[in-house]
């Protein structure tokens, strides 16, 4: 899950349960910057609420519910699907608010929200991550926000053989075959040992993993 603002500046830490308030800076787009959904989900409410002012609720695909309060403007409608990082509104000063800021609440489920709409049960610091297109304000660095790390993708190769390529349990032609792969099959290269690559590939509908001679795989 991703922080809801491009410039992340926490101004109030863990109030009303575990909510966070975020501020703004003139150097980073001013007071009415876009507010983004923290994850994929569906908008369950978009409108006015006492206290929260203009507010958007999103029920996420992992079951969690998030709420973005005091918005100056709402840019989504109830029932709309949103992606992580998609704009739901703009930061504002509506409802019970003493200045432009974003109030973010996260509940673990819709029933947790219904049981306790004014007190959240999820700590945003625990579930949100900073992505490479986001920036952390100086004063917020002390909170040690989690940084998103992309899972590395393995290099790809292609089978180049007359007939079929033997994939074996161990990096030696003396070992049994896990299976065979047809010419031109795309493979994932997981590692190498001597003249063998450790590969993974889909053969019709099963996934084969094992060793194959480097001579028959082009990177
Ligand atoms: Zn707040």
Give the CA-based shape: elongated
Query: What name does CATH use for the topology of the largest domain?
Result: Glucose Permease (Domain IIA)
* Fraction of residues in H or I helices: under 10%
CATH architectural type of the largest domain: Distorted Sandwich
Terminal Cα span: 34 Å
Total of domains = 2
Label the structural class. Answer: mainly beta
Q: CATH superfamily name of the largest domain?
A: Glucose Permease (Domain IIA)
Count of extended strands: 19
Hetero groups bound?
zinc ion
Main sheet specs: 7 strands, antiparallel
> What's the gyration radius in Å?
25 Å
CATH class of the largest domain: Mainly Beta
Oligomer: single chain
Order of strands in the sheet with most strands: 2-3-11-7-6-5-9
Notes on the structure:
- The strands form five sheets. Strands 2-3-11-7-6-5-9 form a seven-stranded antiparallel sheet. A five-stranded antiparallel sheet has the order 18-17-16-13-19, with no helix packed on it. A three-stranded antiparallel sheet has the order 4-10-8, with no helix packed on it.
- The mean pLDDT is 95.
- It is elongated, with a radius of gyration of 25 Å.
- The chain has two domains: 7-143, Glucose Permease (Domain IIA), CATH 2.70.70.10; 156-214, SH3 type barrels, CATH 2.30.30.
- The chain has two helices and 19 strands.
- It is mainly beta and 219 residues long.
- The site of zinc ion has 5 residues, from strand 2 and strand 3.
